[in-house]
Amino acid sequence: EDQVTQSPEALRLQEGESSSLNCSYTVSGLRGLFWYRQDPGKGPEFLFTLYSAGEEKEKERLKATLTKKESFLHITAPKPEDSATYLCAVQAPAGNKLTFGGGTRVLVKP
Amino acid sequence: EPEVTQTPSHQVTQMGQEVILRCVPISNHLYFYWYRQILGQKVEFLVSFYNNEISEKSEIFDDQFSVERPDGSNFTLKIRSTKLEDSAMYFCASSDSGEKLFFGSGTQLSVL
Fold first, then answer.
1. What does the pLDDT average to over A79-89?
2. Does the beta carbon of A95 lie under 8 angstroms from any beta carbon of chain B?
3. Nearest to B42 among A32, A41, A102 (CB)
4. Interface probe, candidates B43, B90, B107, chain A, greatest A C-beta count within 10 A
5. Do B55 and A95 touch (CB under 8 A)?
6. Hey, which bits of chain B come out as E strands?
């Protein structure tokens, strides 16, 4: 069974204080690893897809990296508008469902 | 930018009643999904739908649940006899490739 564990559960940052979120996964073959952002009362919003170990993707202050067992989402010099829950999900080769982790709630204080 | 639209945003129902949650996926997408998120828990997969049939479903998606694409634009989730434990936020999602999913804003279902 595919499993995704995210840590920490919550993260409080000062504006400008860079940090990293972890996503550890167990999957029978990885078709893709996905990062989503979720704001309160909203659906997940797509950020990145990573397909193979060593791959990196960047978008504004966010950078996602992937190894064979985990992925990191680095937030560089965050701003208050980066406050959200960040979700990691994996997709196995068979089928196309996403298995989500529990998320990391990030709060960036000005 | 195209988006997935869900209605209603909130639904309150009595236990044992039937509810239908509605979704309008992005127009050129071929893959459709329902996920749910119980308060404080993970986003959980319910069902995927492709080429007018269910392609995958989870253990949660039992005989009480059904999905339908009644026309070229709508995608619905029906719960025949709601239970208290069905209370959750239900998300519809669509994809053109079966990989990158676009989610709607959800329907908050409260079963009393």
1. 98
2. yes
3. A102
4. B43
5. yes
6. 5-7, 10-13, 19-24, 31-37, 43-50, 53-57, 65-68, 75-79, 88-95, 102-103, 107-111
Interchain contact A98–B (C-beta under 8 A): yes
Mean pLDDT of the region A65-74? 96
DSSP B28: T
Report pLDDT digits (tens) over B35-79. Answer: 999 998 999 999 999 988 999 999 999 999 999 998 878 999 999
A96 touches chain B (CB under 8 A): yes
CA dihedral A29, A68, A20, A4 (to 10 degrees): 30
pLDDT value of residue A44: 95
Give me B57's structure tokens: 């479903």
Residues across chain B: 112
